[in-house]
DNA sequence: AGAGTGGGCCTTTTT
DNA sequence: GGCCCACTCT
């Protein structure tokens, strides 16, 4: 007799009324059965809502939170989704793993570092640290820099990084992305090998290692794969269009035993190919998972029909995409306004003036944003807003944790946690007057191979490498390091920061920088922030993987009524009532570097992302001239404007009245 | 030789 | 503002 199995157990009582709270498209995806599922969610169609309710549904169906893994693009996105499930839907999610690929990889690798030849206290290198280490590897590898014009360290680093993220060989990355370095492929390979070796010796991982070592762990350690395959019975991935080769491989492996994989994304919003993202991942998902269910969300709740038709008209010109037409449900509004302005100053003037008018009409500044392709394009706007006293917040440019003084202070902490972290040593040593590149390198080379570099330093192992003039400051640094080594100190990161400041760093700041007071304040903020951490190692990981303090602290979105200035990349997933899109000039957007058709399509997707951030009003501005190399340059409107049908925007004029 | 200073140059996007 | 290079000082 044939036997059929059915699921048994008590019928599940759902507290949430899914039919009522979701539209039919969303509902279908949220309640879909186990197995691979792909949700193609256009901009503003309730993607976050869908993932959030999917999590809720799984929990309500009896899954334990710790058997779910939720991968998102930023840590903030994960936190917001989980908070919504917890507070709005009243479910407890303790134990659920949510965060970025890098974040989750880091948690896993801390546990299993030994299996890969690392110690669990490894340091995480940010981009700049990685470039510095590559630079020393270029030196060590004995590359004949005279013979060719060898690429700069940051280029070499990006080649190595792309190799990891795309799974391609160095020669393939070089020949497809930067063909002018083809003759140096072999040398670059040598540097890459050396770089790998050094990272292992110094017990440090760069961002890419958090992914590649994770993948290695799963591939080389079947027991580990079994363990996590068994634990995470449901895997959800947000922004799947921005995953790269290695991330997709990780996910495929993590889900290999059960295939309960729920991925959400929008191919039209894939904007990270420069760091290896490949939207083939999303396009080919149905091929890789033949039994995948595919859902489409096409009802846009965010924007007026006018804004949406402009966005649709633009993205329609891309060849490589899943065709979909978003339809609006909001009532009609105003046409997007297209404005040619004289120059960047008039552009800034218009933005500021319009903001003040809107504010006078009762709109909060927090509902407005200025978006741009590149950081430098915010300069004049910043000055103009300051002049008019309009409060603003910049979401781009150098991040808090990448500023020199923050990195200096954390370098001391990094040494205390991982005494083999040569990059941190190098940084600390160079703060001493009279010690430059060369001496710092020699001292590092003497200390790092020791079993206990810190003890060695305190014992005087490096003393004879220091000249007399630097003696006093050097001793002071030794004294400081000795104090950081006190028992239990690693459990009190904010105490450590205070010791560093008192140990001479504060003096250094005042001697070195005119704005020392502001920097001291930043560091006090950092000390404050670190109170929340019970361990210095955890603090350092978090600093490396989180972009701003606001990412963790309570300044959450909006209600502090400030205009937001942001790069388009960082604006992804956000929305404002009014959006000003500036610098829409050919050569600037698309960037002059975007030459191939592929580049152009990615830039167009970026334009699409920008336009779809707006709920009610969209302003498209292009200055006709801008300061360039050797005086003012004349600029034409972006091809993304010229190619639009004339009926999706309204051409407006700027009238300037001088007020004396 | 190696450290420090001043001037000219450029600026894509990020975990 | 940051980076590189050339120049000067120790």
Structural class: alpha/beta
Task: Give the low-confidence spans.
Answer: 549-558
How many strands in all? 18
Helix content: 40-55%
Shape: globular
Task: Give the N-terminus to C-terminus distance in angstroms.
Answer: 97 Å
Total helical segments = 28
Strand content: 5-15%
| Gyration radius, in Å | 27 Å
Main beta sheet: 8 strands, mixed
Mean pLDDT: 86
Report on the structure:
The protein has 660 residues and is α/β, with parallel strands linked by helices. The chain contains 28 helices and 18 strands. The strands form four sheets. Strands 11, 12, 13, 14, 15, 16, 17 and 18 form an eight-stranded mixed beta sheet that branches. α27 links the parallel β15 and β16. The longest helix has 20 residues. It is globular. The structure holds a DNA duplex (15 and 10 nucleotides).
Output the keywords.
660 residues, alpha/beta, DNA-binding
What's this entry about, in short?
The protein has 28 helices and 18 strands. α5 packs across α10 and α16 packs across α17.
What are the SSEs and their pairings?
Layout: H1 18-21, H2 24-30, E1 37-41, H3 47-60, E2 68-71, H4 75-87, E3 97-99, H5 101-112, E4 123-125, H6 127-140, H7 153-166, H8 170-177, H9 185-202, E5 204-206, H10 207-220, H11 222-231, E6 234-237, H12 245-254, E7 261-265, H13 280-283, H14 285-288, E8 293-297, E9 299-300, H15 305-315, E10 327-328, E11 337-343, H16 344-360, E12 368-372, H17 379-388, E13 392-394, H18 404-417, H19 422-429, H20 437-447, H21 453-458, H22 471-484, H23 493-512, H24 516-530, H25 536-545, E14 563-567, H26 568-571, E15 576-581, H27 597-611, E16 614-628, E17 631-634, H28 639-642, E18 650-652
Parallel strand pairs: 1-7, 1-8, 2-3, 2-6, 4-5, 6-7, 9-10, 11-16, 11-18, 12-14, 12-15, 13-14, 15-16
Antiparallel strand pairs: 16-17
The structure holds a DNA duplex (15 and 10 nucleotides).
């Amino acid at each position: 007799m044939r036997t059929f199995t059915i699921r048994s157990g008590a019928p599940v009582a759902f507290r949430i009324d899914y039919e009522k709270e979701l539209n039919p498209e969303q509902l279908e995806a949220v309640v879909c059965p186990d197995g691979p599922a792909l949700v193609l969610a256009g901009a503003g169609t309730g993607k976050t809502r869908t993932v959030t309710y999917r999590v809720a549904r799984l929990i309500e169906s009896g899954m334990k939170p710790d058997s779910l893994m939720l991968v998102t693009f930023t840590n903030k996105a994960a936190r917001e989704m989980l908070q919504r499930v917890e507070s709005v839907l009243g479910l407890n999610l303790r134990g659920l793993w949510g965060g970025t690929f890098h974040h989750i990889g880091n948690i896993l690798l801390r546990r299993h570092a030994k299996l890969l030849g690392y110690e669990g206290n490894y340091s995480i290198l940010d981009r700049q640290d990685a470039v510095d280490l590559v630079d020393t590897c270029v030196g060590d590898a004995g590359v004949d820099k005279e013979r060719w014009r060898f690429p700069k360290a940051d280029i070499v680093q990006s080649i190595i990084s792309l190799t990891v993220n795309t799974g391609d060989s160095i020669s393939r990355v070089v020949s497809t992305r930067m063909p002018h370095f083809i003759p140096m492929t072999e040398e670059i390979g040598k540097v890459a090998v050396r770089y790998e070796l050094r990272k292992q010796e110094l017990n440090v991982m760069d961002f890419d290692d958090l992914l590649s070592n994770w993948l290695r762990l799963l591939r080389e350690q079947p027991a580990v794969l079994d363990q996590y395959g068994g634990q995470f019975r449901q895997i959800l991935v947000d922004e799947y269009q921005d995953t790269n080769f290695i991330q997709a491989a990780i996910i495929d492996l993590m889900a290999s035993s059960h295939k309960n994989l729920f991925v959400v994304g929008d191919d039209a919003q894939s904007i990270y190919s420069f760091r290896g993202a490949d939207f083939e991942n999303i396009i080919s998902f149905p091929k890789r998972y033949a039994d995948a269910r595919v859902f489409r969300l096409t009802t846009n709740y965010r924007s007026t029909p006018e804004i949406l038709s402009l966005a649709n008209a633009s993205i329609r010109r891309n060849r490589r995409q899943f065709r979909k037409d978003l339809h609006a449900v909001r009532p009609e509004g105003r046409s997007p306004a297209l404005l040619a302005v004289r120059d960047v100053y008039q552009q800034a003037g218009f933005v500021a003036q319009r903001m003040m008018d809107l504010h006078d009409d009762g709109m909060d500044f927090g509902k407005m944003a200025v978006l741009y392709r590149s950081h430098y394009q915010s300069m004049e706007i910043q000055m103009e807003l300051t002049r008019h006293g309009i409060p603003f917040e910049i979401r781009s440019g150098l991040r808090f944790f990448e500023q020199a003084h923050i990195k200096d202070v954390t370098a001391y902490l990094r040494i205390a946690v991982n005494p083999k972290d040569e990059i941190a040593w190098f940084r600390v040593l160079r703060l001493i007057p009279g010690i430059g590149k060369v001496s710092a390198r020699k001292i590092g080379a003497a200390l790092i191979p020791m079993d206990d570099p810190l003890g060695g330093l305190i014992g005087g192992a490096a003393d004879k490498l220091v000249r007399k003039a630097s003696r006093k400051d050097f001793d002071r640094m030794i004294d400081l390091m000795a104090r950081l080594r006190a028992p239990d100190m690693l459990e009190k990161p904010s105490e450590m920061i205070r010791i560093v400041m008192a140990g001479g760093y504060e003096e250094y700041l005042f001697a070195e920088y005119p704005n020392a007071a502001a920097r001291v304040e930043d560091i006090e903020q950092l000390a404050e922030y670190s109170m929340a951490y019970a361990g210095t190692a955890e603090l350092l990981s978090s600093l490396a993987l989180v972009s701003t303090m606001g990412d963790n602290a309570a300044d959450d979105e909006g209600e502090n009524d400030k205009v937001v200035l942001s790069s388009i990349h960082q604006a992804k997933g956000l929305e404002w009532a009014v959006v000003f899109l500036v610098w829409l000039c050919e050569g600037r957007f698309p960037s002059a570097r975007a030459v191939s058709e592929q580049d152009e399509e990615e830039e167009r997707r970026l334009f699409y992302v920008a336009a779809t951030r707006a709920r009610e009003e969209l302003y498209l501005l292009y200055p006709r001239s801008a300061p360039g190399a050797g005086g003012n340059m004349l600029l034409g409107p972006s091809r993304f404007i010229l190619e639009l049908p004339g009926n999706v925007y309204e051409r407006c004029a700027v009238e300037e009245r001088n007020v004396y």
